[in-house]
Design a protein that fits this description.
The chain is mostly helical and about 180 residues long. It has one domain (about 15-170). The chain has helices spanning about 15-45, 50-60, 65-75, 85-105, 135-155, 165-170; strands at about 110, 115-120, 125-130. Helix 1 (about 15-45) crosses helix 2 (about 50-60) and helix 1 (about 15-45) runs parallel beside helix 5. The protein is elongated, with a radius of gyration of 19 Å.
Length: about 180
């Protein structure tokens, strides 16, 4: 029986399809971990804590909690809203939802290279969610853009001259590749 009740069983992926999915998944998880670490560092920089204090206070925050903490610290300092940062954090929340589904519910690779994870239940039936290698690649590229936006914010907090991070700031404004499904 397939993942979805009453659906025909899916055919097994080829070894190449299986490997391509797991390669894309590994790259995605790695990029996500780098963004999490960068976000935690940004929260610490914004809160003006030492590296040791940042690690202790913010090291185990979920992405959503870290974003909320960052926004509270920015408000407390009366920092103006940064469109680049808001844009990056909104996209990160969308990608974090996918990451959580994949890591907590697993994913299944099918023949033809498609992959799905269960998105919960709609009307008592599991709802599939696409996590194909192409979708994982899109999110990985977006995570690289998000990381640049976070790094640009760290540079601005530390008052580095704009010329020192112009390339990072440009990269932080790249177009999104991943669009969340409805």
């Amino acid at each position: 029986m397939g993942i979805i009740p009453n659906a025909p069983p899916p055919s097994e992926p080829t070894p190449r399809e299986f490997d391509l999915f797991h390669l894309a998944l590994g790259r995605f998880v790695h990029a996500f971990a780098e963004v999490e670490t960068t976000l935690q560092g940004l929260v610490g920089e914004t809160a003006r804590t030492s590296k040791e204090m940042t690690r202790e206070l913010f090291g185990n925050l979920t992405v959503n909690s870290a974003i909320d903490m960052l926004n509270r610290a920015r408000r407390a300092q009366q920092r103006p809203e940064c469109a680049r940062l808001t844009r990056a954090l909104d996209q990160l929340r969308d990608i974090a939802r996918v990451r959580n589904r994949v890591l907590h519910q697993g994913a299944r690779v099918f023949a033809g290279g498609s992959s799905q994870t269960l998105q919960g239940f709609a009307r008592g039936r599991p709802t599939p969610f696409d996590v194909s290698p192409d979708r994982l690649w899109e999110m990985t590229q977006d995570l690289n853009t998000i990381r640049k936006a976070l790094v640009a914010e760290v540079f601005e907090i530390n008052l580095f001259p704009a010329d020192d991070f112009a390339g990072v700031a440009r990269g932080a404004n790249a177009a999104w590749r991943y669009t969340p499904s409805a």
